[in-house]
Design a protein that fits this description.
The chain has 441 residues and is α+β, with helices and mostly antiparallel strands. It contains 14 helices and 23 strands. Helix 1 packs parallel to helix 2, helix 8 runs parallel beside helix 10 and helix 8 packs parallel to helix 12.
């Protein structure tokens, strides 16, 4: 398996200006797959996960499970079977942990299962500070002694002599997705009841909670900001299907709209896109929902125009905790705004470096003012022209790919392994819609 230090260099070569058209189903939710894989460590029985995206981050997380002594094998393209009966005493491999942010999700299940874990610093996208404080707060509340290691990792031990965590009431200092997931997994094997307040409730958190419930955890409040978990003495195996990636769905909707194409996205869980529909609607990007409530349809040839606020005020698109507009779609929304007539303010509140990629769009011809690390004003529509670019992270890389596909001329995007971390075989799948995109290297 390729590790963080041994990734092959690859490029996308794109000829833009062609409408995409057809039907494309979103792959499984990356942000659900990673915690669900971590949750397989909570039991010594077999867990089968279906609709797993075959992306770099998933392969790295599976590599970590194997390194820890779990058996993990793919039984078909998108189904993996994991059995952690032979979990060893080794701590997670530092090199693999540096490759992905989601390595921190091993802390909760390993601490609950073994009573101790030494976690190396996690890696992931460089989009600003990504604090671990909330994870520490939650694990300490459950009875763990947590020490910060000299190079930034965490050493965690259960304080009680019996090596078992204790249920507690936890008020998270921020609605952190990964801290909520770590707390939920740790509480699943804790003695007694745990109540987590100010919990994150994104679709991937809900999928994790549903998996744990199918493994024998009694849990209330799924989909809300208050979770109640009754810890079990042991958990059973399970067979679970991961939901579609709503970030990929939003990316595909934007791609269709800015290229003028017509796109059907089956099995998209439209109810998960209420905030996206509202935000994209401010750019004139619209989609329809099928009568059975399962499919999204993006009409072709939409005339994109910014819908102003009352009295013609410039509207704002801003991210928010679920069920608000997802932070991972703000980069995508910026590209959509470049093709919409009018001006809009886009405010990304979570990460202080995510908007720095807009200089690539400006070089392509976009009219964007970077107000500060969190806000941009976009005026459109702008004629974009192909350029050579480097992908800095998953979402910015996808945004640049969408921009290249609606631009005039040839673009080359380097460092596409960043895009591969979040989007499975995106070049092959977009070619099926008529996109002119080739992978080189």
């Amino acid at each position: 398996m390729e590790t963080a230090g041994h990734m092959p260099r690859a490029q996308f070569v794109i000829e833009g200006g062609r409408p995409i058209a057809g039907t494309l189903e979103a792959r499984g939710n990356k942000n659900a797959a990673l915690p669900l894989l971590a949750a397989t460590l909570l039991t010594d029985e077999e867990v089968t996960l279906r609709n797993l995206p075959r992306i770099r981050d998933v392969e790295t997380q599976i590599g970590l499970l194997r390194q820890l002594g779990a058996e993990a094998e793919f039984v078909d393209h998108d189904t993996v079977r994991v059995c952690a009966a032979g979990l060893g005493d080794d701590d997670p491999d530092p090199e693999l942990c540096r490759a992905i942010r989601a390595s921190i999700l091993l802390a909760g299940p390993l601490l609950a299962r073994r009573g101790r874990v030494r976690m190396p610093p996690p890696g992931g996208d460089v989009i600003g500070r990504r604090r671990l404080d909330t994870h520490v707060l939650a694990l300490e509340a459950l009875g763990a002694d947590v020490t910060l290691c000299p190079r930034g990792g965490l050493e965690c031990r259960v304080e009680d002599a019996d090596g078992r965590l204790r249920g507690a009431e936890i008020f998270l200092d921020e609605a952190s997705v990964t801290a909520t997931e770590n707390a939920v997994m740790a509480a699943s094997l804790a003695e007694g009841e745990t109540r987590i307040l100010n919990a994150a409730s994104e679709p991937h958190v809900q999928d994790l909670c549903r998996l744990l419930r199918s493994m024998g955890v009694r849990m209330d409040g799924i989909g809300t900001n208050a979770l109640t978990i009754e810890g079990a003495d042991r958990l059973s195996g399970a067979d679970f299907t991961i939901g579609p990636d709503y970030i990929e769905v939003g990316s595909l909707v934007t791609l269709a709209a800015v290229t003028g194409g017509e796109l059907r996205i089956p099995n998209a869980r439209p109810k998960e896109h209420r905030a996206t529909r509202l935000a994209f609607g401010r750019l004139g990007i619209d989609f329809e929902i099928s009568a059975d409530g399962r499919e999204l349809f993006v009409p072709g040839g939409q005339e994109l125009s910014v819908r102003t606020d009352l009295q013609g005020a410039i509207p704002k698109i801003e991210d928010a905790p679920w069920p608000g507009f997802p932070a991972d779609l703000t980069s995508i929304a910026v590209v959509g705004a470049t093709q919409s007539r009018g001006s809009v303010l886009i405010h990304e509140k979570l990460f202080e470096s995510r908007m720095f990629f807009v200089d690539r769009l400006v070089a392509m011809g976009a009219q964007i003012v970077l107000c500060d690390p969190h806000r941009v004003v976009v005026s459109g529509p702008s004629k974009l022209y192909g350029r050579d670019m480097v992908s800095p992270d998953i979402r910015a890389g996808m945004a640049m790919l969408i921009a290249a596909l609606c631009a005039e001329g040839r673009s080359v995007i380097d460092n596409v392994q960043q895009i591969d971390r979040g989007y499975e075989r995106i070049d092959e799948r977009l070619r099926s819609l008529g996109a002119d995109i080739e992978r080189v290297g």
